[in-house]
Design brief:
Length: 134
């Protein structure tokens, strides 16, 4: 069975509002009634998860990259929810440190046919495996 892993939807939530019920190390459930912000993205987005051992500790590097027609607020602390085409959802960040870092680059291309969308990158380095939401 093939699973389509393309990211088709991204939402974010302020970390101070985030409340999780942990089911297992790799699964979590969001409390109902939380207000999430849908991001305007060019589909598909990219989620890259790299795991490695550093000084005897397991470390996960996460990079969520997408293009948006709107400038993204980078000043707040946000956790992100990336939804795959298969319907699976991954949580990037938590209500505890370390928090994801959001960068928004405004592009002024030198070619008229190149994309003029904002390049957004969300990075997180953590010892916790990125959780699936149920």
């Amino acid at each position: 069975m093939n699973i389509v892993k393309n990211i088709i939807k991204i939402q974010r939530i302020r970390t101070e509002q985030l409340s999780l019920k942990y089911k297992r190390q790799s699964l979590a459930e969001l409390d109902t009634g939380l207000i999430t912000e849908d991001m305007d993205i060019q589909v598909p987005a990219k989620l890259q998860i790299t795991d490695r051992v550093e000084d005897g500790n397991h470390v996960y590097d996460l990079v969520l990259s997408f293009k948006s027609c709107k400038r993204i607020d980078t000043t707040g602390r946000y956790a992100y929810i990336a939804t795959e085409a298969s319907g699976s959802r991954r949580l990037i960040g938590d209500n505890e440190r370390p928090y994801p870092v959001t960068l928004c680059n405004e592009v002024h291309p030198d070619n008229m046919s190149d994309s003029q969308l904002f390049d957004v990158s969300v990075t997180l380095k953590t010892a916790v495996i990125p959780r699936y939401l149920i």
